[in-house]
Design brief:
Length: 542
């Protein structure tokens, strides 16, 4: 086993060029630019972009360029914008990525006093495609129609000099034709207007106890936007409640014989007993690669989150979170159906502070591998860990024969320290509760901006299979769907904050049309909104 401090940066460098597909938002201040004077005009442009990208592109109107700037580079909830030269001149170099300029018909000798820009951090593949679409708008009949309607001669690369615009002079008017008999006028091409999301009244509030549930991401660019997926009503899953006083800790157990760590489970009398293969109700196993297995939590069981394990030449490495004693016992039993090799290491993806009755009851002979933030969270609990712990800073790489396991410390996101587990040979990624499939998830300890950045990173890894914290083994499409839900939720909360709404008013008037059928909506959406409101207000509304 060797420690690596650079897996996150190494993977970013290797995979940053992979295309990412997600909903795009175009921000506009209608009274501060010479191109788009209304939401209707902005809709013509964004609908054209959407048709060329095969992606949803929405418009968001802002009252000031300063607010739009915050949504671009601070919140990262707007991807494209048009900003005036005067505002851009007041910002440090490199604050935005310049995409395109434009030339108005009434001023063909000079470019406009504003620029179409993109936020920093947008995928390079997407930047290049957007710029190409904008610069070639005049080559298509639909694009020319839109430019004519906006009184634009051409969209051009940023920074052109006046002498480079000479070829853009409008052609001379053709001689008047002979009068023709009257004919029916040709109906102009109508581009559908973008529909801004309207906040509807939310369903009757449901104050259920916090539970761990999981969510969904967006789909790769398809010919048409996918219909929302209907899922079964959420099952109540009990999230462990904080323990007010320490339970009695079992006496230190005798270490098992060499090679027996996996199968020996402590019993109530302090002795060890061999786990019976197959007799467990918490997990369904699915082999996702050679020697790599997903343990998907079953409805109504003791497991509230998915887990995984990988079988090496000499021993097994497993991982997960929210590990109650019963969940640990059942995972050990599930592993026993696959191999007799011992469990040597358990990768604890994260820990929720205040929950001392989970993540502590592992079999003797099993070492925990955790991020330093997770170690600190557990060290502050009222219980003490009686297992050896290996904790790491940025990342850690394990080798199990020909298999590589790359651990990346994502820092703050779902909790104070979340760990990704990546198997590069097979392209399998275990995200734990950073990604939920078709669920609103549990965000009670979440950090919204950091979580959104983590989702962008996860999407760019280009994994072939995802083992999420909740839901079935999935593809990158589900990461995108969950990221879309996450962005929509955070955007809605920010709108309430910018209007000056109180937390109570936000909870009463908040609505997310299209997500009401997600698992856990009734139990967790108010809790998630509360956390998002507090986190965003503390970090961005000062």
């Amino acid at each position: 086993m060797r420690q690596s401090s650079v897996p996150l940066f190494f993977l970013l460098m290797l995979l940053a060029a992979l295309p990412a597909h997600a909903k795009i938002t175009f921000g506009v201040v209608t009274n501060a630019n010479s191109l788009l004077h209304s939401e209707k005009e902005a809709g013509y442009l964004t609908n054209y972009l959407a048709s060329q990208l095969s992606e949803e592109v929405s418009v968001q109107i802002f009252s000031s360029e300063k607010t739009l700037h915050d949504w671009l580079n601070r919140y990262r909830l707007v991807d494209l914008a048009i900003l005036s030269d005067s505002y851009l001149a007041s910002q440090p170099p490199g604050e935005f990525f310049p995409l395109a300029d434009h030339v108005l018909r009434q001023s063909p000798q000079t470019t406009s006093p504003d620029l179409i820009v993109a936020r920093q951090g947008l995928n390079p593949w997407l930047l290049q495609k957007l710029q190409t679409i904008l610069l070639t708008m005049g080559d298509s009949p639909t694009g020319r129609e839109i430019l004519n309607g906006l009184d634009v001669l051409a969209i051009v690369p940023p920074g052109l000099r006046p002498d480079e615009l000479a070829g853009l002079q409008p052609p001379p008017a053709p001689p008047a034709p002979e009068p023709l008999p009257p004919a029916e006028p040709i109906a102009p091409v109508k581009v559908p207007e973008p529909q801004m999301p309207v906040a509807a009244a939310p369903p009757a509030p449901s104050e259920a106890a916090p539970t761990i549930v999981e969510t969904a991401p967006p789909a790769k660019p398809a010919e048409a936007k996918p219909e929302p997926v209907r899922v079964e009503p959420p099952r109540p899953v009990a999230i462990p409640l904080p323990v007010s006083k320490p339970p009695a800790v079992a006496a230190e157990r005798e270490l098992p014989r060499r090679g027996e760590a996996l199968m020996e489970i402590p019993s109530r009398d302090g002795k060890t007993e061999r786990a019976a293969a197959g007799a467990q109700a918490s997990y369904s196993l699915e082999q996702v690669a050679d020697g790599v297995f997903a343990a998907i939590s079953r409805p109504g069981s003791s497991a509230t989150s998915n887990a995984f394990f990988v079988v090496g030449p000499e021993y097994v490495v497993a991982g997960g979170a929210h590990m109650t004693k019963k969940a640990v016992d059942d995972l050990v039993t599930a592993i026993r159906t696959v191999t007799d090799k011992p469990l040597r290491h358990f990768i604890l993806a994260h820990h929720h502070t205040g929950y001392s009755h989970i993540d502590f009851d592992f079999p003797a002979g099993v070492d925990l591998i955790i991020s330093w933030q997770t170690w600190k969270a557990m060290d502050d609990e009222i219980r003490e860990t009686n297992r050896p712990i290996l904790f790491f800073s940025d990342g850690l790489t394990l080798k199990l024969g020909e298999r590589t396991i790359i651990l990346t410390n994502m820092g703050r996101a779902h909790t104070e320290g979340d760990t990704l587990v990546f198997f590069p040979e097979s392209g399998v990624l275990f995200t734990s509760d950073l990604v939920y499939v078709k669920s609103v998830g549990y965000m009670g300890d979440g950090h919204m901006e950091d979580w959104l950045l983590a989702l962008e990173f996860i999407e760019r890894l280009g994994a072939r299979k995802i083992i999420p914290g909740f839901g079935p083994v999935s593809s990158t499409d589900e990461i995108i769907r969950f990221k879309d839900f996450f962005r929509d939720m955070v955007t809605e909360v920010l709108k309430h904050l910018e209007r000056g709404d109180s937390l109570d008013k936000t909870l009463q008037t908040f609505s997310l049309p299209g997500y009401g059928n997600y698992s856990g909506y009734e139990q967790f959406i108010r809790l998630n909104i509360r956390r998002a409101y507090i986190d965003l207000k503390e970090n961005f509304m000062k």
